[in-house]
Amino acid sequence: MPRKPKRKAPASPARHDTSPEPYPCHSSPSSAQCLAVRDALLAFHGFPEEFAPFRRLRLGGRSPNCDPLPQPLSPTVLDGLVITLLSQNTTDAISRRAFASLKATFPSWDQVVDEEGKRLEDAIRCGGLAATKAARIRAMLRDVRERRGNICLEYLRELSVDEVKKELSRFKGIGPKTVACVLMFYLQKDDFPVDTHVLRITKAMGWVPATASREKAYIHLNNKIPDDLKFDLNCLFVTHGKLCQSCTKKVGSDKSKSSNAACPLAGYCCIGEKLQKQ
Fold first, then answer.
1. Which residues, at least 6 apart from 275, have a Cβ–Cβ distance to it below 8 Å?
2. CA–CA dist 223, 208 (Å, integer)
3. CA-based Rg of the chain, rounded to a whole angstrom?
4. What are the pLDDT digits (tens) for 35-71?
5. What are the beta bridge partners of residue 68?
6. pTM, 2 dp
7. Which residues form the HhH-GPD domain (predicted)?
8. Fewest Cβ atoms closer than 10 Å to its Cβ: which of 90, 103, 124, 258?
């Protein structure tokens, strides 16, 4: 069983999104709530193995206990952006397979831009929506080459979060969730993407209103969650949303009450349900 982490107060405040706060009267979550939920999920699941390499990159090749670990190879920003684009409307496993096929077919990004046939589309077909994704990848790569002289996005590492958002949002098909994932996983920035799992769980806990859209939830949660908890909480929410059957059901329904007993978020979701009814 994973060892329960030591509790400590969050060291850094939340980074406020530059967009207007959509729910100024909604006080949740507090820093203490974020820490408690992070600790509960970490004790229950351990840290998800699929996200461990990204965590080691953020920790500079060390474990949370400061023990040295093998430094994982850092993907390029462009690789990360393409992987994230390919993951739209499919699973991570399938998108990784599509990316591996793309790289095997095209050793360089310039070849992707210069190729005029359907080899790119064929290479990523296993990931779904091949025609749409191929067109967006090629257009993005062409734009980068025309503006920068070469196909590379490593310069984004030197920019602020808002500057990265501005740069990436110029590309068709790169929305707020994709940008947030690139910021958090591939640029090691403090950001909090909101996918279907995160939105469902945070609504259930009352961290965002029940009627919140993904876009407004993203702004609110980034304003509220302390920077030093965003990465762990996000990875744990995604993992918990995939694994916990009770969290896939409507909170408070008769069908979910018995299955909620083993869920570490059951108490938080009951509180959230009461808050949503007020």
1. 28, 206
2. 12
3. 20
4. 999 999 999 999 999 999 999 998 875 555 555 555 5
5. 62
6. 0.84
7. 86-243
8. 258
